[in-house]
Specification:
21% of the residues lie in helices and 36% in strands. With 155 residues, the chain is of the alpha+beta class. It is built from 2 helices and 9 strands; from the N terminus they run H-E-E-E-E-E-E-E-E-E-H. Strands 3, 4, 5, 6, 7, 8 and 9 form a 7-stranded antiparallel β-sheet that branches. It has a two-stranded antiparallel ribbon with strand order 1-2. It has a domain of 103 residues: Glucose Permease (Domain IIA) (Distorted Sandwich).
């Protein structure tokens, strides 16, 4: 009788240990706080707004790229953070006066990222480059082809 009870107990404990290991070993998503950026330019429609039930994913100053579900890569070492609904911001100590705003990205990989690491995918990506002004606000500026190429091609 004790043999049967011990085998059942061992099976239950073994299953419990496996479940604890799986739950404890599964990588947890990075909890990034949304970053709000004050733009120098002000337009009525901004990414993250909703018009007639549809999300605005780009605005004046954004470049639209048809990615057809392909990946977006970190152009240099930096951090990916949420911004407004449907948009994220990528920042880096390598270029401290610039932020990359990416809207329309799916499955963003928030947190610290290495150069060349996939940070998400998009059907249609709206990209904007922001430059920090002396007054602390951010201005939209024209991005270089080089940054876009680094973001769209794996290394």
């Amino acid at each position: 009788m004790w043999d049967m009870d011990l085998s059942v107990l061992n099976a239950v404990l073994g299953t419990g240990a496996i479940l604890v290991c799986v739950a404890g070993c599964t990588p947890q998503p990075v909890a990034e706080q949304p970053l709000d950026v004050q733009l120098f330019q002000s337009w009525e429609l901004q990414p993250g707004d909703v018009v007639a039930g549809y999300a605005v994913t780009g605005g004046l100053g954004d470049i639209s790229i048809a990615l057809k579900g392909n990946s977006i890569y970190a152009p240099y070492e930096g951090r990916l953070q949420p911004n407004k609904p449907g948009c994220v911001l990528f920042s880096s100590a390598d270029v401290p006066n610039y932020l990359l705003r990416l809207c329309g990205m799916k499955h963003p990989q928030f947190g610290l990222r290495k150069a060349g690491e996939a940070i998400g995918i998009a059907e249609a990506l709206q990209f904007a480059l922001l430059n920090k002004r002396a007054d602390g606000q951010w201005a939209l500026v024209e991005p270089s082809k080089q940054i876009l190429q680094q973001m769209l091609q794996p290394r």
